[in-house]
Specification:
Elements: H1 2-16, H2 20-53, H3 59-69, H4 74-85, H5 100-136, H6 141-151, H7 153-168, H8 172-178, H9 188-198, H10 201-232
Membrane topology: Multi-pass membrane protein
Domain ABC transmembrane type-1: 26-222
Keywords: Membrane, Transmembrane, Transmembrane helix
């Protein structure tokens, strides 16, 4: 019990004193996760909005596929990205393997289906509500897409936050394509796994506490945005 207390105290000391190694790992984690989330939203929101306002043969199959891809196994995505970015792969000449860029690519592939599927459902509900009005105004598909994206902006922010939360907790894919290299590709989740295996529980606990705080902050933001949207009549 004393060892656990001492480890927790040391972990808190690392956080309060801004331990350089801890800060470096946290900042890299945030950079990778935020970049992947931004790219996922740029791609996923367009896909979700396009499908929400479109009616075509095979649409139901596309929606089922999108929903299925939300459960992509991270290690499979990591392997896929690794094979493509390795020296013998088609994109090996880029030299992205074992860099933060490779980690961003892997996380983007994981998060995009989540953003696309969740946003599609939200935007489709909005579209059905305004569909007759859009038709009466003879709005083009792009104008309809822009209108529902704006109307659902609060709910879509919660989708983005959900994607960001998913990316910060990712370990399987990033450790395959990033390699967990010190001062280069070591993020919070991979560092926690490494430090625990080394018996350095103080640093592992410090990183775990920071990760928990980030997760808690995301949940608070999501709840606040939903409450704000409800009060303003957007949800």
């Amino acid at each position: 019990m004393n060892d656990m207390t001492d480890s927790l105290w040391t972990a808190l000391t690392h956080i309060v004193t801004f331990n350089p190694d801890l800060v470096e790992i946290v900042l890299l984690s945030l950079r990778v996760s935020l970049s992947a989330t931004l790219l996922s939203c740029l791609i996923g929101l367009i896909i979700g909005a396009t499908i929400a306002v479109s009616r075509f043969r095979g649409r139901s199959l596309v929606i089922v596929l999108m929903n299925s891809l939300m459960g992509l196994p991270p290690v499979v995505v990591g392997l896929f990205v690794y094979l493509n970015l390795s020296r013998s792969g088609p994109f090996g000449w880029l030299g992205f393997l074992y860099t933060p860029t490779a980690m961003i690519i892997a996380q983007t592939i994981l998060i995009t289906p989540i953003v696309a599927a969740l946003s599609r459902q939200i935007l489709e509900d909005i579209y059905e509500e305004y569909r007759e009005q859009f038709e009466s105004l003879s709005l083009t598909k792009s104008m309809r897409t822009g209108a529902i994206l704006w109307d659902g902006r609060y709910s879509l922010i919660t989708v983005a936050l959900a994607g960001f939360g998913r990316s910060t907790a990712e370990v399987g894919a990033v450790i395959i394509v990033g390699g967990n290299i010190e001062h280069l590709t070591r993020v919070m989740t991979t560092a926690i796994a490494l430090e625990t295996s080394k018996g350095n529980l103080q640093m592992a606990m410090a990183l775990g506490l920071v990760l928990l705080c980030i997760s808690l902050s995301i949940n608070i933001l999501v709840s606040s945005l939903r409450l704000t949207a409800t009060r303003l009549g957007y949800a």
